[in-house]
User: Fold these one by one.
Assistant:
Number 1:
Amino acid sequence: MSRNNPLYEGKAKILYEGPEPGTIIQYFKDDTTAGNGEKHEVISGKGVLNNRISEYLLTALEEIGINTHFIKTLNMREQLVKAVEIIPIEVVVRNITAGSLAKRFGVDEGIVLPQPIIEYYLKSDKLNDPMVTREHITTFEWAIEEELEEIGRIALRVNDFLTGLFKSVKIRLVDFKLEFGRVYDEEGNIYILVADEISPDSCRLWDVETGQKLDKDLFRRNEGDIAKAYHEVARRLGIIDGDNNVIDEEKGNVQPITPVVKTNPSPITKNKNPKKDK
Ligand code: TMP
């Protein structure tokens, strides 16, 4: 579907105003970037796969009581989501050394960590998403302490759940990135939701038996075909049928996911957000 007037266009997604107040349409592009946009390609079908994988994972989180911005999938490339105030922090959870952690500290990739590590990065293309501490986050009022507590609690719960879910399809969840948003009720209570997407663009996924990468590192490192890898992730999760055809938007060979009944989230704090009155 073609739409006019995006609210925001990012590297892999476009956001449009939703049909109801408080909703947004999130469109998944085929554009694939790495190195803060230095490497860029359009990979046919990637947006469709990420739309479905993210739908599947966010729905699974909702089913265990983790609140997300996801409302429903509209079509092959679009999701209806709740409009949230995005917290400008990327939260990375790591189970196994890889990527920037291995590079920064000069350690080998593939070492299982004794406990998950949570890292925070400021969402700023201009500054190249620098790593920040919790003190930076509260000092510069990107989030308050209570929100960080909630974010940490949710991130570890998501990690435990997704680790098990991927393990059941013989995939190791090496690390992943989450984004969070806040919504308010009439009394000014704040609710934290998992926002953005969870897909092989934002996770490191290794085959349990072969160690084969099934994520965006294939693109970042010129090591293989990400459409094929993402298709394999979707196939293993049971999201798409198993005939190994690359998803065809015309054929629409993707099964819809049954919507879940959502529970009411509880607020974490009341009238404490420093940004609320701005
Ligand atoms: P890193 O090792 O490059 O810091 O990445 C850690 C995880 O976060 C990895 O699963 C990929 C994901 N990630 C994103 O989703 N977006 C980003 O901009 C970056 C840098 C990482």
Number 2:
Amino acid sequence: MRVLLIGAPGAGKGTQAARIARHFGLTHISSGDLLRRHVKEETAIGRQVAEYIDRGDLVPDAIIMDMLYKPVMAASASGGYILDGFPRTVEQAEAAYAVAGELGVQVQLTVHIEVSPEELLRRLKARGRGEDDSDSVIRHRLKVYEEKTMPLIAYYAEREKLVTVNGGRPVDEVTWSIVVQLQRARRKHLVD
Ligand code: AMP
């Protein structure tokens, strides 16, 4: 099974991806976690991306594609993946499709975790306290999501690869909805 999770900052992507990975025996690949590890370990990639992350801007596509290639290939060869945080733009989706299509490891289904803007802001402010995300960075990340990432929802819907779950509910209920959607998709042979 090869699936993507799309959701705004604060939608619970990371938490849900980890749970879904465990449930179906998939590899959880989080572009944000990988980038943060590079920053922490002060690698060459880490030095290039730190500023973008601090500002809440997207990291350039070439760096992301390069960083994800190996983990995605490895995961595809061993049970599949759940990608969280990638793609973030239609350009990234198209680039990924071009690379993965040739290798037969393209995405089978995208799960959109939908949460209202008011709820997102409430969660992000609660989470940000004491950490380094200021209000303006939070707002900027939400704006980047709306402008750059939301068009992906129509992109995958047009390709009949989208399911949406209501992410405004308690964590367990959201996980369960995703599991049900993926099981349904499996019965329809949309995912393996
Ligand atoms: P996340 O943990 O997914 O919210 O990602 C944290 C930050 O990492 C984002 O705000 C971006 O700066 C960067 N990032 C993560 N994934 C991507 C991606 N696919 N493309 C560009 N930047 C990304």
